[in-house]
């Protein structure tokens, strides 16, 4: 097969992937095909099947690949700066879309959209991040903001930072969320201790901490409220407020 024939074959394959998406949606794609199509946006004349396979093998999951640093992505043979730009651009657009979709909506009526946003933006990260969703008096979503990164403990999440941001947004309530890079959804003793401290700090300035969500390997976060932990913390803290 000469170069021209090879290019025509590759062009036909890429068009079939596009047609497949338009006709059947992303659910019809394997992760390999998703990455392959993303890579073609950066190098439309290059065969991206093998780089896609190698990248997924290297990073272990689609989520981890999408969050990978440019330098790490370029260690994969066949992935260059243009491919990295395409991956990061599409990932950032998706995150902005999901974030804008939840703004101004009532939190309790939009739990599915909130979960989708948090899982998309936090699952698969190699580091822990601490995200806060700020709500008004009617529990409509004002903003979502990451206020800390790294190993999250009571020593790294300062209540005054959370309170400062909440007051800046004129928030009446907040929902906090953090991820477990291990993929586990099981809350640790530190997670519970941190929640109790933040619950107390918020209560002293008349801000309600409604829930703490843990993002792991599941499509759904672990909710302290749904599992009765927020009610337990309320009972523990009631004599102190």
Give a nutshell description of this structure.
The protein is an alpha+beta fold and 241 residues long. 51% of the residues lie in helices and 14% in strands.
Describe this protein's structure.
The protein is an alpha+beta fold and 241 residues long. The protein has two domains: 93 residues, no CATH class; 136 residues, 3-Layer(aba) Sandwich (Cytidine Deaminase, domain 2), CATH 3.40.140.10. Helices cover 51% and strands 14% of the residues. It has a five-stranded mixed β-sheet with strand order 2-1-3-4-5. Helix 9 links the parallel strand 3 and strand 4. The chain starts with a helix and ends with a helix.
Global outline? elongated
- Can you give the helix content as a percent range? 40-55%
Strand content: 5-15%
Number of domains: 2
CATH superfamily of the largest domain: Cytidine Deaminase, domain 2
Second CATH tier, the architecture of the largest domain: 3-Layer(aba) Sandwich
**Major β-sheet annotation:** 5 strands, mixed
Task: List segments where confidence is low: pLDDT < 50 over at least 5 consecutive residues.
Answer: none
The secondary structure category is alpha+beta
Task: Note the run of SSEs as H and E.
Answer: HHHHHHHEEHEHEEH
- How many distinct beta strands? 5
